[in-house]
Fold each of these.
Amino acid sequence: DTEVTQTPKHLVMGMTNKKSLKCEQHMGHRAMYWYKQKAKKPPELMFVYSYEKLSINESVPSRFSPECPNSSLLNLHLHALQPEDSALYLCASSQAPGTRQDTIYFGEGSWLTVV
Amino acid sequence: AQKVTQAQTEISVVEKEDVTLDCVYETRDTTYYLFWYKQPPSGELVFLIRRNSFDEQNEISGRYSWNFQKSTSSFNFTITASQVVDSAVYFCALRAEGGYQKVTFGTGTKLQVIP
C-alpha cells in the first residue's frame, strides 16, 4: 500500500466551483510534488515543495494554487478550471530533495473531471 | 536536455511468457539516476527500481530483472513468467544529478498479459 495518501479519489466539479485536492505523507519526506497526467501520457510536473517552500512551479496557470501547510501535507486548490484540466492528479514525496539517493514515491492519484 | 524513449507503445503476451520492456535514454550528465515505475489501471505509480549511473550491476528481484548498459544508454526491464497482475503501464524515467527534483519520464509501455 502507498504511504502517500490522496483525497478525494474522484472529483467532479463545475467550471465555477472551488475545490481542493489533499495529500498526506508520514514518511518524514521533505519534498512534495504535484503531477498532472492526461490519458495515455506520462506524468507532467506541476509544483515542487522542498522543506515546505515552493521550489518549482512549471508555469502552471493560476487557477491551480498549491499550498504546503506543513511537511506532511500538500494541497492543490482548484478554481475556475476548464474541461481540459480533467486529468489524474498525482501527489508524490521524496526523502531528501537534491540528494543522490532521492526517489519519488507517488500516491494513488485523484481523478478530476471538470464539467 | 534529457530524453527517455520507450519505443514499445503496447505489448501483449500470454501468461507465463517472458517479456522485455525497452528503455533508451539521453543525457549529457555524467551522473544520473534511472527509474522504473508501474502504473496499474487504478492510477497509482508504483516505484520498482532506481539505478545510479555509477553502478552498472544488473539487478534481479523475484520475477523482475533489469539490464543497465551504459554503452548503449539502455535500461531494459524483463519480467519472467508473466502474470495477469503484471498488466499495467510501465514508465522508465531519468533524473540528472544536476536536475534537482525534475524527472523525465518516457511515454510508457502498456503491457497486457493474457490469461
Amino acid sequence: DTGVSQNPRHKITKRGQNVTFRCDPISEHNRLYWYRQTLGQGPEFLTYFQNEAQLEKSRLLSDRFSAERPKGSFSTLEIQRTEQGDSAMYLCASGYRGGLSYEQYFGPGTRLTVT
Amino acid sequence: QQPVQSPQAVILREGEDAVINCSSSKALYSVHWYRQKHGEAPVFLMILLKGGEQMRHEKISASFNEKKQQSSLYLTASQLSYSGTYFCGSPSRGDMRFGAGTRLTVKP
C-alpha cells in the first residue's frame, strides 16, 4: 500500500454515459499524475498537476476528458460520453521531488469497462 | 517518444541473473524503474540520473549509460518475488513516457 487511494476500484458503464474517478494522493506530495493502462502496455500519461495547477495534458486526452485538483488535494478525472475504447485501467500517481527528479507512487487504479 | 525496452520477456530459474535494457532516441536525463505484478499497480524501484551513481534496490541494481542513451536493470540471484513486469520511464518536462515493459518470470 503506497498511501494513494483511488475510487471506485471498478466501474462498468454503458457507452455514452459519463464517469468520474477520484484519487487521494499522499498528503505531503505536491504532484499528482493520471495515466491510462491497457493490457500488455505501459502506463500512458494523461495529465499532471502541481498543487492545484494542471501543467500538462497529453494530446491523447480528448475534450471528453477533464481533470481537476481543487485546493491541491484530491483529484477527479471525468470522462464524458464514454466509448468502448475508453475501457482501461486508470492509474493515479502521487509525486514528490526526491533529489533531482520526481518519484511517483501509484494508487491501485480504477478499472473501467465500457459496454 | 516512449523508451524501448528489451527483451520483451525473460524466464529465469531462481538464483539466475538477468539484465533488462531501456533505451531512447531522445536525450535521457533520468530513467525511472518500476515493477508491476499482475493485477497490481506499478511500484517505484529507483531513479537513475544522468551523471549519477549506480542505484540499488535490494539485489536489483541499475546503471545509466549516457553515450548509449540507455539504462540497464540488473537482477542478481533472482528470487520468486522478482516476477512481474518491469517498466522504465523517461520524464519529459513533467510528464513520463513509459516503455512497453519486460515481463520477468522466475521459476523455482
